[in-house]
Amino acid sequence: MGARFLKSIRLLAECMQGYERLSGEYVRRSGLTHAQFDIIATLGNTPGMSYKELGEKTLITKGTLTGVIERLEQKGLVERQRSDCDKRSFFVRLTKEGERVFCDVFPEVISQSGKVFAHYTPDDFSALEKTLSELKNVIMAGHLPGTPEHDCD
Amino acid sequence: MGARFLKSIRLLAECMQGYERLSGEYVRRSGLTHAQFDIIATLGNTPGMSYKELGEKTLITKGTLTGVIERLEQKGLVERQRSDCDKRSFFVRLTKEGERVFCDVFPEVISQSGKVFAHYTPDDFSALEKTLSELKNVIMAGHLPGTPEHDCD
DNA sequence: TATTGTTATACTCTATAACTATA
DNA sequence: TATAGTTATAGAGTATAACAATA
Question: Which SMART domains would you find in this protein's record (chains A, B) (predicted)?
Answer without folding.
Answer: HTH_MARR
